[in-house]
Structures are given as C-alpha cells and as structure tokens.
Amino acid sequence: MEEHTEDARIEEDNNRIPVKIAVWASMVTNLLLCILQMYAAVSSSSLSLLSTGIDSVFDIGSNVVLYWLHRKAKKLDVNKWPVGGARLETIGNIVYGSLMGAVNLVVIVESIRALVTHEGSDLQAFHLPSIIAVAAALFMKILLFIYCFSLKKSSSQVEILWEDHRNDIFLNGFGILMSCGGSKLRWWLDPTGAVIIGSGIIISWGITIYRQFCLLAGQSAPHEFLQFLIYKAATFNDSIEKIDTVRAYHSGPSYFVEIDIVMKSDTPLWKAHDVSQSLQDRIEVLPNVERAFVHVDHETSHTPEHRKPIY
C-alpha cells in the first residue's frame, strides 16, 4: 500500500506542470480559435461553420469554468462543506454540457428551417479565407488532442479537455467538408452539415453528462480496486481476523471507501482504535480516494453497517 501510494504521489508531482500546461494552452488556444472560427462563420454565412464557431465560443467558457471550479474546490471551507469540493467539477461539467446541448439545439432548428423553406437555395460563394481559418483551428486542435491524450488519466480537468479536443477535430473537419460542399456542389449540404454537427455535439455531451451523473449518484468503484482494498485490509494487521464488508463508490471524480473489519471481542479499545485509524489513514492517501471510513466489529452475523433498514 505504501509503494502504491508513493508511486501515485510521484506521478502526481511529475504531472503537475504538464497538467497546468494543458489547461492554460487549451484556454489560450481556444481564445484564438474562437476568433478565427467566428470570423469564418460570419464571413462565409455558412451554417456548418456557425456550428463549429458556437462550439469554439463555449470551449472558452468551459476552460474558464473548469479552471475556476478546480481552484474553488481546493479552497472550500470544510466547516461549511464537510465532504470537500471534488463534486464541484462534476457539477460544472453537467451544467456546461447542458448549455452546449441547448445552444446546438437552436442551430439544428435553424438549419432544419433553412432546409424546409429552401432559404439560401442558391450556391454560396466559396470563401477561401474562412476555410483556411477553420483548417488552422483544426491543426491546432489535433496538437492539443495528442498532448492531452497522454495526460488524461492524471486529471479530470485534462480528461474533459481531451474529450473536447477530440470532438472538435471531428466537428471542424466535417464543417469544412460540408461548407465547401454547400458552395460547390449542393446548397442543402451546408444546413445538413449543421444538423449533423449539432446532433453529434448533443449526443457526445449527452454521454458525458450521463457519466458525470453516475459519478454524482455514487457509482461503484471498479472491481479491481475493490479487490485491492480487500486484500490490503485483510493483510494490514494480524489483529484483523476477517473483513466483513468493503464498499467503494464515487462521490464526484473520487471515491468514498467503507470497510468493516472484525477483531476479537476482547481486543482492547486502544488497539482497535489505533489499528482502524491507521488503516483509514493509509486508505485516504491512496490516489482517487476522497475519504475512508473503517468500522470495527467482533462478529459478522449482523446487518451490514451504514445501510438504512427497509421496513
């Protein structure tokens, strides 16, 4: 357990600066891309490029909100928020994803209206500068995607940014194709592209929101992590005779851990306390563990602790 904890601490120290680079690089790059993509959308009057431009505007908002929530979560008053601020980031992801879905729904409705009324049924003029601007944005997103991919397991912030860059690669590439198609081939390709892009964003963020809700609802930790806890608790101290119950579940991105250990009925109180407290301390320094609770008992025939009885 000490080796596992030390490896996690070293990895966190090594990744601290790269994670900051990923966050700040994404914020600065998204600001530049927002300007380029909104210029492309306005100058070309393309609904497909408008969809990618709106997405870039929200990218800036997401970066700022995630960064602010990450700092806020570390500085919350523990007297007012006893469980800590880890769930703030999860709530921020849900709110941001919901706003993204609402805005893209408006774009989809506008694009469908254009298709039904045949508004702009003439081929639009091909605007090369707007295509170049979006292509430059696509290239920069590819670089950020590769960089964040190598760090996505180190931070929930970076993982969200990685998902955002991954989505933008598809959006920008597809937006360029449909905008060019609407200028050179068929007029309806551009609004159709906007519908597809908007739907893709809604589906993608819908999946992300569902995963974030699962974290807030208390989804169980992976089976491998539970096995790790069981083994470490069972071999932690000779005074521990049995392991009654082990639970680990999400509370935001991190885990809450509950362990019920069994000791002899004549074990001195000081010893039961010291062993359980030491086990709790060891568990709480494990990576991704927010809090741990260790309960000591002398038999296993009772109803599991920490569970409300059903009448």
Automatic annotation (TrEMBL):
Ranges where the Cation efflux protein transmembrane domain occurs: 23-208
Pfam families cross-referenced by the UniProt entry: Cation_efflux, ZT_dimer
Transmembrane regions listed in the UniProt entry: 21-42, 48-69, 90-109, 129-149, 193-210
An example Gene Ontology CC term for this record: membrane
Domain Cation efflux protein cytoplasmic: 238-298
InterPro entries for this protein: Cation_efflux (IPR002524), Cation_efflux_CTD (IPR027470), Cation_efflux_CTD_sf (IPR036837), Cation_efflux_TM (IPR058533), Cation_efflux_TMD_sf (IPR027469), CDF_Transporter (IPR050291)
Localization: Membrane
Manganese is among the record's keywords: no
Top-level taxon: Eukaryota
GO biological process: inorganic ion homeostasis; intracellular monoatomic cation homeostasis
Keywords: Membrane, Transmembrane, Transmembrane helix, Transport
Its membrane topology: Multi-pass membrane protein
A molecular function (GO) term: monoatomic cation transmembrane transporter activity
Keyword Transmembrane: yes
PANTHER family assigned to the protein according to its UniProt record, in alphabetical order: CATION DIFFUSION FACILITATOR 1 (AFU_ORTHOLOGUE AFUA_1G14440), MITOCHONDRIAL METAL TRANSPORTER 1-RELATED
Official protein name in the record: CDF-like metal transporter
